[in-house]
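Worked example

This section walks through a single chain of length 176. The input is the sequence exactly as stored; nothing has been trimmed or padded.
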Amino acid sequence: MMLQPLTAGPEPWLAGRFTNLAPVPRMVCCSLELSLSDLDKWIAPLSDEQIWAKPGGVTSVGFHLRHLAGSTERLLTYARGESITPEQIAFMKAEGEPGAPVADLLQGVRASYEAVAAFASAVEDLDAPRFIGRARLETVLGVLLAHIAEHAQRHTGQAITTSKFVTALAPAPPQA
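Given that input, the structure is written out below as tokens.
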């Protein structure tokens, strides 16, 4: 399944997107598509330096992008009924380390979102139990998928807010 960032028109949930899906998977795909659109609009124009800035000590845009990719992948692992790997744990511990360029970070988010959309579009039993974390806290698959969407929106909003501060604090271009 290909998620398409919006260029104009209503948000995906109002645009009749993913009508072949049941409501929860449809909402997940619409939410992830909206997140990609917002990231393309607000984050893609930032420089590699700007995405790692921490104005006022807030968490960087780069962290939010890495966290979006990594946490989405980890939650999808749980949705598949699997346990997260040592590599996923190592990725999680390094989410705040600066250095990756904005294009690579956005591609990581897109890849994790596409994997969730493909999974959500094929899911059959939204009431199937799933177990989260070392404590193996139980939820159902539909709620876990809804959390992926909600979590994506939360960090997208935080990344946008930080990007606005970073842009506002950028030095003005030299006058000609």
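What to look for: Residues 69 and 107 are 9 Å apart (CA to CA).
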